[in-house]
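tokens incoming
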């Protein structure tokens, strides 16, 4: 699914006779599941995941996820978890979101990318141009390849499980799938 695709983009073995490789193929992944199959999660599961990863030796926390700000209380919980990890020397990176928000919105990126101690990642296509769905604006820190939904076959190809709801049972399974968005840009 989503997390497996992201992990493969980071650390998939090279010279594997399949033609895909991770960008840091010798990296070690510390998998922390905070979303379900439908890509839903709660502030509490994300906060717990950040703290757990920081306590278990993570050097980098990739958060290919995000949501709009919900309340002052949830912002505080998330900010405290982010600061907790940051104070322990962890680099936190998060996808900026795929809502086409720009400098007219504040913040112009999803949270947790909206926090000061998190690097906000936007998406560009194979031509290195801004993908129209990628959030941007002054809150964006950097862009990376994330594919382009408007161009067939211009996603990030990675070996993963297809586990999304809405597919018939026979469509589930292991294979190569293109995915696009700031979640796919963030691992780069």
């Amino acid at each position: 699914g989503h997390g497996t695709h992201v992990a493969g983009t980071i650390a998939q073995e090279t010279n594997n006779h399949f033609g895909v490789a991770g960008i840091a193929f010798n990296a070690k992944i510390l998998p922390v599941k905070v979303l379900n199959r439908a890509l839903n999660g709660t502030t509490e599961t994300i906060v717990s995941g950040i703290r757990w990863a920081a306590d278990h030796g993570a050097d980098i926390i990739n958060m290919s996820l995000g949501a709009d700000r919900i309340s002052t209380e949830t912002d505080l919980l998330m900010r405290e978890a982010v600061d907790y990890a940051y104070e322990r020397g962890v680099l936190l990176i998060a996808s900026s979101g795929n809502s086409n928000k720009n400098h007219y919105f504040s913040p112009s990126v999803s949270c947790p990318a909206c926090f000061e101690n998190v690097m906000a990642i936007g998406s560009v296509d194979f031509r290195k141009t801004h993908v129209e769905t990628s959030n941007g604006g002054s809150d964006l820190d950097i862009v990376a390849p994330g594919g382009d939904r408007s161009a067939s076959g211009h996603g990030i190809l990675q070996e993963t499980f297809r586990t999304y709801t809405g597919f018939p049972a026979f469509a589930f399974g292991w294979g190569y799938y293109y995915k696009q968005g700031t979640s796919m840009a963030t691992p780069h």
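note: The longest strand covers residues 118-124.
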